[in-house]
Specification:
The complex is a heterodimer of chains A (about 475) and B (about 230).
Chain A (H helix, E strand, L loop, with lengths): L2 H11 L3 E5 L8 H11 L5 E5 L5 E2 L2 E2 L13 E4 L3 H13 L4 E4 L9 H17 L2 E3 L5 E4 L4 E4 L7 E8 L2 H13 L4 E6 L8 H9 L6 E6 L5 H12 L4 E5 L13 H6 L1 H11 L3 E3 L2 H13 L8 E5 L2 H10 L12 H11 L6 E2 L3 E2 L7 H12 L6 E6 L9 H11 L3 E5 L3 H13 L4 E2 L2 H15 L7
Parallel strand pairs in A: 1-2, 1-5, 5-6, 6-7, 10-11, 10-12, 12-13, 13-14, 15-17, 15-18, 18-19, 19-20
Antiparallel strand pairs in A: 3-4, 8-9, 8-11, 16-17
Chain B lengths: L1 H11 L4 E2 L1 H10 L8 E3 L2 H11 L3 E6 L12 E5 L2 H15 L7 E6 L5 E10 L3 E8 L2 H4 L4 E5 L4 H10 L17 H17 L3 E11 L4 E3 L2 E5 L6
Antiparallel strand pairs in B: 1-11, 2-5, 3-4, 3-5, 6-7, 6-9, 7-8, 9-10, 9-11
The chains are: A alpha/beta (about 475), B alpha+beta (about 230).
């Protein structure tokens, strides 16, 4: 992407005004919901609904055509059928509009005619230097600019994670999981058919986007995987990129089979090559979000030496299991740490002071928890620490102790409270505000740890 | 460039597969260590070349029409002397007559036992040239123990490939078997990954097996597939 391209993209995501072409008064239609989303998202710029006969929708005055809008439009949302979409994009080009989102489906995914129409979109985009998101997309969001230009009227938690999704449905699934996990979003891009703007373009744009600290990507299949992996590798050197790609089963993408590939399956090919370029891969929506959460909140550790602190062995063991094959080392605690713990709990202990450090029943007491966590976190053998606890009716959660210890040490700290969402919501808010991700399961904690260690290594782009 | 010319000549015949002889000639031009083979047209020539090679030898069918040689009964290993060579020659002629009555044979020395691996490249639809490495035979075909990289790769990346396979311990020495020369494998991996990038008309290279010893590695069999469309 050239500097000029980036400028256009910035305008597209932070428009001074938005036109909704195909706005309607029927709440079942996409055109209505685009308007509703803009309002729900708290968009502060001008909104110009376009409809040939309606005068007003949701209290906003309607314009009969794109030409009747008194301003130069910054972002055109096109919610028309596929043929009218192509027409309107041409009008956009003529009127000097530089950014558009085309929501309708019915293009290449349906056959020859759709393919031809997409070709027209490419020609129009080139002719007028018009950037088009989609078609066949849920839309885009930029929470920083209070812009929800999708047809899902939701208001989301703001943050520094940006998402690119090839699928609207899974894009939404990732968004919802982020909400459940208290992960704040910055931008959402429904890439759709990627007719004009490719995933690689979005990656390059987000690489330079100040509001984005972590990029999460959902992929189905891409045409130019070579360019994509090279771009992802370049971007991952600047900021963490986490990719979830479907196709673990050979049945999902048999089309990519080649001779040698058929021996191992294309997912292995994909996985090996993305690893080659240092890009972190996730195996599910849950893993993608768990990884983005840690990368969004924590400083990167100085290395891959993990300490685990717990008073209940099982969750720490399951977390260790989840870290198998992730090249994370689990060193024994330093003698100094063991001395400190013994000084707190007494010499003759019925507990295990290895790694995981398991203080058993003695570890649940609120009077000593803070001192113990501090000792573990400050162990010179550990680059990062994960703690595990089980919230209990009569025991106080160690939230304030964790925050205090973390504040003093500065090392990355991840916490796992085995609980339901309801049980930890309040604790999570304060912990995450303090830069300590809170997970509800050891598996997700492991994914967060693995992501931090992966990007602590620095990404070498070798090819 | 000689290698390019070789490909051009084969393309002119309308073929997409290079024979083992041609594939090895091509690889040797790029400094890749192959067990070179010689073409023999009749029984007497076969025996003469076998004597020059020194027994034991390997006889394989040599025909542009036969890609999978062992499936056609066209491969005879470890032939200890002249009699065995004559018999193998006749067997090959008989087994392959239905497919190619004009098929001749190649003669090459039988190497001592080493660890067999596979090194290959494919022109992937999505990633372009990709290089693959795995242990030979059952390890790759059944256990799917194979790793991939986008070509070209550096020696450092090739080293990671060699380390990444599950059966890596077989290369590092096991049960009294010595460790093998993985550096030689890394060199072959980088060379063919470079080749796959430079020569766009190569669709597939299948160096299978490559046998690796405590010192050195040699390509025992190779098959190269080229595209029929003239590349720019």
């Amino acid at each position: 992407m050239t500097e000029k391209d980036i400028e256009v993209m910035q305008k597209l995501f932070s428009p001074g005004n938005v036109a909704v072409i195909g706005a309607t008064a029927s709440s079942e239609r996409v055109g209505y919901n685009l308007l509703d989303s803009l309002i729900e998202g708290g968009y502060k710029g001008k909104i110009y609904p376009v409809h040939p006969s309606l005068k007003e929708i949701l209290g906003i005055p309607v314009y009969p055509s794109l030409r009747d809008i008194p301003d130069r439009v910054d972002l055109a949302l096109v919610a028309l059928n596929r043929r009218d979409t192509v027409e309107v994009l041409e009008r956009c080009g003529e009127l000097g509009v530089k950014g558009a989102v085309s929501l309708a489906g019915g293009f290449r995914e349906t056959g020859e005619e759709g393919r031809a129409l997409e070709k027209r979109i490419v020609e129009i985009a080139e002719k007028y230097a018009l950037k088009v998101v989609g078609p066949n997309t849920l839309g885009i969001m930029n929470l920083e600019a209070d812009l929800n230009a999708s047809f899902y009227p939701v208001r989301l938690k703001k943050g520094n994670v940006s998402l690119i999704s090839q699928s609207g449905g899974i894009g939404f699934s990732i968004i919802q999981k982020c909400q459940d996990e208290g992960v704040g979003l910055n931008k959402f891009i429904g890439a759709g058919n990627r007719t004009v703007l490719e995933i690689a373009d979005y990656l390059e744009f987000l690489a330079g986007d100040a509001g984005t600290r972590v990029i999460g990507v959902f992929l189905e299949g891409v045409e130019n995987a070579r360019r994509l992996v090279q771009a992802a590798g370049r971007v991952a050197r600047k900021k963490p990129v986490v990719i979830y790609k479907v196709g673990h089963s050979d049945d999902v993408n048999k089309a990519t089979l080649t001779h040698t590939g058929s021996m191992a399956g294309p997912y292995k090919l994909f996985r090996d090559i993305f690893n080659q370029y240092g890009v972190l891969l996730a195996g599910s929506v849950a893993e993608l979000v768990a990884a983005c959460k840690a990368l969004s909140l924590c400083q990167l550790p100085a290395g891959g030496r993990l300490g685990l602190y717990t008073y209940t062995a099982g969750p720490a063991i399951v977390a260790l299991d989840g870290l198998a094959g992730r090249e994370i080392s689990i060193p024994a605690p330093a003698p100094g740490t063991v001395r400190k713990i013994k000084a707190i709990l007494g010499e003759d202990l019925p507990v295990i002071l290895k790694n995981p450090i398991d203080t058993g029943g003695l570890g649940t007491r609120s009077g000593t928890y803070g001192l113990l966590v501090e000792a573990a976190l400050n162990d010179p053998n550990f680059d990062l620490l994960a703690t595990f606890s089980c919230p209990h009716k009569n025991w106080r959660n160690p939230t304030s102790e964790l925050i205090e210890a973390h504040k003093k040490s500065g090392k990355p700290l991840l916490s796992c409270y085995i609980s339901t969402i309801k049980g930890v919501e309040a604790d999570r808010e304060v912990l995450q505000q303090a830069g300590i991700p809170l997970y509800k399961s050891p598996e997700e904690t492991a994914w967060g740890i693995a992501a931090l260690v992966h990007y602590s290594r620095g990404v070498e782009c070798l090819s | 460039m000689k290698a390019r010319k070789l490909i051009e000549n084969i393309r002119k015949t309308g073929r997409t597969f290079l024979t083992e002889f041609e594939s090895k000639e091509f690889l040797a031009l790029r400094g890749i260590p192959v067990v070179s083979c010689q073409v023999a047209r009749d029984e007497e020539e076969t025996v003469r070349i076998a004597r020059q090679c020194g027994f034991p030898v390997v006889l394989k069918v040599n025909s542009p029409h036969i890609v999978h040689k062992s499936e056609r009964g066209g491969v005879f290993l470890n032939l200890p002397g002249e009699e065995a060579v004559r018999e193998a020659f006749r067997n090959i002629k008989r087994n392959c007559a239905a497919v190619d009555p004009d098929a001749d044979v190649t003669v090459q020395p039988m190497l001592k036992k080493g660890v067999e691996v596979l090194i290959g490249t494919i022109a992937d639809r999505q990633f372009g040239p990709v290089v693959a490495f795995g242990l030979g035979g059952v390890f790759t075909e059944v256990l799917k123990d194979i790793v991939f990289r986008m070509a070209p790769v550096s020696t450092a990346e090739a080293e990671k490939m060699v380390c990444q396979i599950e059966g890596n311990c077989l290369l590092r020495g096991y049960r009294g078997n010595p460790a093998v020369d993985t550096l030689s494998l890394q060199k072959i991996i980088t060379s063919i990954s470079q080749l796959a990038v430079e020569m766009e008309d190569i669709e597939e290279m299948d160096l299978n097996p490559v046998v690796v010893f405590p010192r050195g590695a040699r390509v025992l069999d190779a098959r190269i597939k080229i595209s029929q469309i003239q590349s720019g």
